[in-house]
Amino acid sequence: MPELPEVETTRIGIAPHILGETITRLVVRDARLRWPVARNLGRILRGQQIRRLARRGKYLLAFMQDGCLILHLGMSGSLRVLQQAVEPGKHDHIDILFANGTCLRFTDPRRFGSLHWTRQDPLRHELLRYLGPEPLDNDFDGEYLYQRSRGRKQAVKNFIMDSRTVVGIGNIYANESLFAAGIHPQRHAGHISRARYERLARDIKQVLRQALRKGGTTLRDFVNVDGRPGYFRHELKVYDRAGQDCSVCARPLRQIRLGQRSSFYCPHCQR
DNA sequence: ATGCGGACCTGTTAGC
DNA sequence: TGCTAACAGGTCCGCA
Is the CB of A165 under 7 A from strand C? Predict the structure, then answer.
């Protein structure tokens, strides 16, 4: 479910409900996430006040007095704010309860998500320290991609989906960005010109910003805290559109597999 | 060092 | 209708 726009939509949605609020209790119904939830997390979080809610890549960072809660939604995770008690469903693994009665509920059918606590700077945490730049920051640009890709034979799609290259770009937005930039997903990263990377970097930013404005992409079940889906799905030009007409040249879009992921492209517009 | 495949997990859908 | 296989928004790990 979540790539950068969905995680950011989640952050913006839940922030006003939990900022400044104090945690009274953690309810862990199933600790078996990607990594087991620490047994003592409840004791640690009790009495902590949320000072700031940030995002790094697809990680949400809840800063508190004594440390920071690092949260990842994995492939199928989501967060919801509940103002009154709602019977937990099968995949509602964790509740964070606040003094004002709010409940932040973590749901994750596939359990690829995770929760970590750290007392140091979360950016130094093992999971975060090797992450590449934020795609919407100024230090991410065509020149950066060009320099970093020299000598690499990896398919450009895999290259931009690697969080050490740049964070936040998952399968949907990798496909969409490459289409926007007219680059074939299988092209070797090291064989792409500076000019084409300039265009790709710009298109990545544009695609992500536009998705953000639409509240992210809902394929099956992503909803923001208000229960509304993301509307970027209607803007997808290639993702999940194999066989349909290219919106630019009207020729049929193709699907291949790259690095175990479905890849969609227009063989005419993308070279 | 780079790059690839496998692994983790459950739910949904396509195909026989 | 029912069973099975393939696939799904992520990313870490180990091996070549």
Answer: no
Cα Rg, chain A, nearest whole Å: 20
Closest among A93, A104, A138, A85 to A18, alpha carbons compared: A104
Distance in angstroms, CA of A196 to C1' of C2? 51
- pTM to 2 decimal places: 0.97
Instruction: Give the DSSP H/E element, type plus range, for residue A6.
Output: helix A4-18
Question: In chain A, which residues from 158 to 177 place their CB closer than 7 Å to nucleic acid strand B?
Answer: 158-159
Torsion of CA A179, A73, A215, A122, to 10 degrees: -90
Q: Examine the pLDDT at A20 and tell me if it is beyond 90.
A: yes
* A252 three-class SS: strand
Catalytic positions of A are 2-3, 58, 261
Nearest nucleotide, CA A171 to C1': C9
Give residue-wise pLDDT tens across range A234-251.
899 999 999 999 999 999
Q: How far apart are CA A188 and CA A271, in angstroms?
A: 11
- Distance of alpha carbon A188 from alpha carbon A149, whole angstroms: 9
Q: How far is the CA of A155 from the C1' of B3 (A)?
A: 10
Q: What pLDDT, in 10s, does the model give residues A96-121?
A: 999 999 999 999 999 999 999 999 99
Residues counted in chain A: 271
